[in-house]
Design a protein that fits this description.
With 484 residues, the protein is mostly helical. It has helices at residues 33-74, 77-80, 85-101, 103-110, 115-132, 139-153, 156-167, 170-201, 210-232, 247-260, 271-280, 282-297, 304-309, 315-343, 347-366, 370-398, 403-417, 420-423, 437-475; strands at residues 9-16, 19-26. It has a single domain (9-475), classed as MFS general substrate transporter like domains (Growth Hormone, Chain: A, Up-down Bundle), CATH 1.20.1250.20. Helix 5 (115-132) runs antiparallel to helix 9, helix 11 packs across helix 17 and helix 12 runs antiparallel to helix 19.
Length: 484
């Protein structure tokens, strides 16, 4: 594995209680420490503007096209297509067959091609497929479109996480990943507002049902977003200079990432070695297990409008009152990720949100009081979404190199984690309304499992850091330290 030459260093003096502490800091070219700080601040600001803002926008459309079937159900999709509960649940679940199967191959391909070309192409294709849902007239057509949509969407999320982990240091990833993933809560909240307007205002327009207009509008919007992505998304730092970076900024982008990973340059490595390392690393499977628990606890999302409908309001009010829940989830998720950045903690910031999620589930399934159940829905959203962002950031710091291994782990974690959306589609049958007791118990159980597994991984990484410190003290050679 290639390493960065960090022989040139500069001294950095700090005072702690009157005592001088000297740190040896790697030096970039001929810049002083202050000049390096200024350059880094400018560079990170540019990356934030071009990469994170673009991914945030694109993720909104990603979630809209994936989950608008829940809003379309309230608009009559299930009735118009003569779908039983089981057929509807299968239509929800089948999308994830293609979505999951495409994850690992797509992320490996992404390490070999230009993301600024590959991802926009996928976005335009899935937008077109989503739009075509407006033309289906039976369960067979709906299932076919949903399967194709899953394959078309598979490159985006894991590819976005790989891009983020390739441009930012591990300590910087949590809030960036959180901001992007907050597009999920924004999409669900905005999707409720948009659906309320479309289903109420366009139903019957030009002879089309409102839910068909919903797919037309959102699918067309996604295709436009895909064209914009071609102009906004960068490639990997080492795959050619980005047009919005100077030559010095490009070199510094590569250099600072290598410094953060114990002087190891972020190279692709061989596909065979990357796959082997990913599948044989026990940390991979702990991360996978945490993600499975977390996303299972979050599988209420695709039935949320139906769950809220049990509060007794009409369709328009139901869609509108889903919005505050997702807005609350947006702010708690972002806040938890900022805590992850400032504290460099991971396990505890996964454990407490999942505990809150359990409390929310218990409130929803045990009470018949509208206020209590509605507050419980806020806690469910805040808990499951706040933990998710930290898990994604934890992957990058736990699997720093090589890019192929990291790409495989990201895909594997999300592949197996998102399998929850297949079996989770059957947790909320209509006959369980209004309490959805069995679904709530299952989701709470998985959330509890996530708490335990996060604690196990955190303690293990802490122990590995302790051993690294002891080895470093013996031979003086720096060791990589995990965030736990």
């Amino acid at each position: 594995m290639a390493e960065l030459d960090t022989k040139d260093t500069i001294s950095h003096i700090e005072r702690d209680g009157g005592e001088e502490i000297q740190h040896r800091v790697a030096r970039f070219e001929d810049l002083s420490l202050d000049e390096m700080r200024i350059l880094e601040k400018k560079l990170v600001r540019k990356i934030d503007w071009h990469l994170i803002s673009a991914l945030f926008l694109l993720f909104i459309f990603n979630i809209l096209d994936r989950s608008n079937i829940a809003n379309a159900r309230l608009g009559g999709l299930q009735t118009d297509l003569d779908l039983s509960d089981t057929k509807y649940q299968t239509a929800v679940a089948v999308m994830f067959v293609g979505y999951l199967l495409g994850q690992i191959p797509s992320n490996i391909v992404l390490t070999r091609v230009r993301p600024s070309r590959y991802m926009p192409a996928a976005i335009v294709i899935w937008g077109g497929i989503s739009l075509s849902t407006a033309a289906v007239h039976n369960v067979g057509g709906l299932l076919a479109v949903r399967i194709l949509l899953g394959f078309a969407e598979s490159p985006f999320f894991c590819g976005a996480l790989l891009l983020i982990s390739s441009w930012y240091k591990p300590s910087e990833i949590a809030p960036r990943g959180a901001f992007m993933y907050c597009g999920n809560t924004v999409a669900n909240g905005f999707g409720g507002l948009l659906a309320a307007g479309v289903l109420n205002g366009l139903d019957g327009a030009r002879g089309l049902e409102g839910w068909r207009w919903l797919y037309i509008i959102e699918g067309a919007g996604t295709m436009v977003a895909g064209v914009l992505a071609y102009l906004l998304l960068p490639d990997f730092p080492r795959s050619g200079r980005s047009k919005w970076l100077s030559d010095q900024e490009q070199r510094f982008a590569e250099w600072r990432l290598a410094c953060a990973a114990n002087d190891e340059i972020d190279e692709n490595g061989s596909i065979k070695a990357g796959l082997k390392d990913a599948f044989t690393d026990p940390k991979t499977w702990l991360l996978v297990s945490i993600q499975v628990c977390l996303l299972t606890s979050q599988s209420w999302t695709y039935f949320f409008p139906s769950i809220v409908k049990t509060l007794g309001y009409n369709n328009t009010i139901t869609l509108l009152i889903t919005v505050p829940v997702y807005v609350f989830g947006f702010f708690t998720s972002l806040g938890n990720s900022l805590l992850a950045t400032y504290t460099n903690s991971r396990a505890v910031l996964i454990m407490w949100p999942l505990a809150v999620d359990i409390v929310g589930n218990v409130m929803v399934i045990t009470s018949r009081t509208t206020a209590v159940r509605y507050i419980g829905m806020f806690l469910m959203c805040a808990g499951s979404y706040s933990a998710f962002n930290v898990v994604q950031a934890w992957i990058a710091s736990t699997i720093p190199r090589t890019r192929t291994k990291r790409a495989t782990v990201y895909a594997l974690v999300n592949l197996l984690g998102n399998s929850a959306n297949i079996y989770g589609s059957y947790f909320f049958p209509s006959h369980d309304a209004p309490q959805y007791l069995s679904g709530g118990i299952i989701l709470s159980s998985f959330a509890a499992g996530g708490v335990v597994l996060a604690a196990v991984l955190g303690l293990w990484l802490r122990n590995l850091n302790k051993k690294a410190g002891e080895a470093e003290a013996q031979d003086g050679r720096p060791r990589y330290r995990y965030l736990w």
